[in-house]
Amino acid sequence: MLVRWARLLATLVLAALLLGVAARLAFRPDARDDLRAADRLLYAGRYYDARAAYLALADRAPGLAEVWARLGIVSVVRGESQVADHAFVRALAAGARAPEAALIRLYQGQLAARAGHADLAGQFWSQIDPRSALGPYRLVLEAELALAQADYASAERGYRVALAGGLAAEWHALAYMRLALLRASSDPPGALAELAPAAAAIPLDNDWLAPLLPSTPDAQQLAGVLRAPPDQRAQLLGQIYLGARLYPLAEAQFAAVPSTSTSGPAAAAYAAYTRWSAGDRAEGQRQLKQLVARYPGEPRLRALLALVLLAARDDAGARAQLDMLQSLAPRAPDTLLAWGQWYTVQHDYAAAADAYMRARRVAPSGQRGDYALALARFYIDTEFQACAAGVPAAEEATQVQAQSPQAWAALAAARLGCGDAPGAQAAAVRALAIDAADAEAAYYLGRALAALGDAVGARQALVQAADAAPASVWRERAERQLALLGF
Questions:
Q1: How many CB atoms are closer than 10 A to CB 189?
Q2: Which residues are CB-neighbours of 311 under 8 A, at least 6 positions away?
Q3: pLDDT tens digits, the chain, 487 residues: what are they?
Q4: Gyration radius (Cα) of the chain, Å
Q5: Using the 8-state DSSP alphabet, how is residue 455 labeled?
Q6: What b/e string do you get for 92-104 counting C-beta neighbours within 10 Å, with b at 16 or more?
Q7: pLDDT for 83-101, tens place per residue?
Q8: 3-class SS at 159?
Q9: How far is CA 62 from the centre of its chain?
Q10: How far is CA 222 from CA 84, 212, 225, 242, 258, in A?
């Protein structure tokens, strides 16, 4: 009897031990649960916290390929190309399976394309099966690269094949927008038809592709240009191409504007500026000089040339153009603004401030807010008379442009720099009420709250700034402040 009870007791003890082990296994934190939690942060646009979660998980589970892949993706969002590339290599080394590996190759190719390594991009993308779910997206990115290289026939072919393979809604719209842009100069009705395609997009369950989606011009704006009178269409279309950095297409449109038309000089100036923006600075400058010689009485051409020469550090050349500009239009706000920039480069801040103030005074009423904001930015950026003059200038900008988040953010910066943390907080809150995604305003709100001793609120605002513009200087500044605060 005693032996039987002893055996029963031993069995119960063993069962209890097994149940305890099972419970510990069941309730032990699972790396994939943590991965899903980090993914939810990324989906929600909380990139700062998502990155921290992925890094912590990578320390705990360095062999989990998905963690490194996600860390690479969030690094692409944050503009950290080298970090992203390293993470993708780690993901592949950890044994990323076929679907994840294809996604990684898609990203690696895009990183190479953005860095100007077209051949390397092609090598990465060639490892993605065109028949796979990511095949159509590979084709879109290849078409984007062809478009950037002015290989328009290959670009159009790539977009159409990608559409036939099926694309998610935003990519579907992108492809048709690109096709409209490619047809706009030669076939406006056909381009309009490309802007209204049948909704044949397919859904995506987890859109890990969103950070790769290129930006596009506004479809309504393009449609309006396509419906514009022919004598206006070329210049307007050229401006859209210029904004989209499709420089050869932009230059061709500006060149199509007759030199004898009233908009001829402006179109020629745009053409020269396009060449300059595309990186051919010497040719762009040469064309502007030719235009100034052809139209010596056109003040805006001289102002543009002066600014281009300033950017090239040709101070003597810029000064000569400004002197001529002064004789042509001494009280024009553009003339005064150009002088303000000249004096700023020369570090003559008193003269620069005087030029900016006079530009604000003579500006048309509808533009006075822009000039007031330019004056405020001058004081803030140079720290010249930042409190005595900068704060009143920023306050005036908010009075003239009460619905401008940029004006309120500038006021927040000015007040913070002058030790008025409550005033900075109020201005930043006002800016964010107008535009909740204004990274600059969120940054200054965080700084103001930190100065007021609200560490929790400061962290929240600074993280908001980092997430609102993850690939910008505001993210970098916000993270420096977070580090200083010990977060």
A1: 9
A2: none
A3: 444 544 444 443 444 444 443 334 333 457 889 999 999 999 999 999 999 999 999 999 999 999 999 999 999 999 999 999 999 999 999 999 988 999 999 999 999 999 999 999 999 999 999 889 999 999 999 999 999 999 999 999 999 999 999 999 899 999 999 999 999 999 999 999 999 876 556 766 557 999 999 999 999 999 999 999 988 999 999 999 999 999 999 999 999 999 888 888 999 999 999 999 999 999 999 999 999 999 998 888 998 999 999 999 999 999 999 999 999 999 999 899 999 999 999 999 999 999 999 999 999 988 888 999 999 999 999 999 999 999 999 999 999 999 999 999 999 999 999 999 999 999 999 999 999 999 999 999 999 999 999 999 999 999 999 999 999 999 999 999 999 999 8
A4: 29
A5: H
A6: bebebeeebbbbb
A7: 999 999 999 999 999 889 9
A8: helix
A9: 31
A10: 34, 23, 5, 13, 22
CB 360 within 8 A of CB 375: yes
Identify the CA nearest to 415 among candidates 429, 436, 433: 429
**Cα(180)–Cα(174) distance, rounded to whole angstroms?**
10
DSSP helix/strand/coil, 101: helix
* Residue whose entry in the numeric block shows the structure tokens 């309009």: 192
Handedness of CA 412, 415, 421, 423 (dihedral sign): negative
User: What tokens does 383 get?
Assistant: 């720290």
308 three-state secondary structure: helix
Sign of the dihedral defined by the CA atoms of residues 320, 325, 330, 332, in that order: negative
Q: How far is CA 189 from the centre of its chain?
A: 31
Q: Which residues contact 72 (CB under 8 A, 6 or more apart)?
A: 83, 84, 85, 87, 88, 91, 104, 107
DSSP H helices in 312-402: 315-328, 333-345, 349-362, 368-382, 391-400
Q: Secondary structure of the chain: what % helix, strand, coil (to 5)? A: 75, 0, 25
Q: What is the longest distance spanned by two Cα atoms in the chain?
A: 119
Sheet strands (E) in 11-136: none
Name all contacts of 32-35 with Cβ < 8 Å and 24+ positions apart.
32/64, 34/60, 35/64, 35/66, 35/67, 35/70
pTM over the 0.90 mark: no
Task: Please tell me the distance from the alpha carbon of residue 32 to that of residue 273, in angstroms, as a whole number.
Answer: 52
Calculate the alpha carbon distances from 24 to 19, 28, 184 in Å: 9, 6, 65
DSSP 218: -
The CA distance from 432 to 464, in Å, is 11
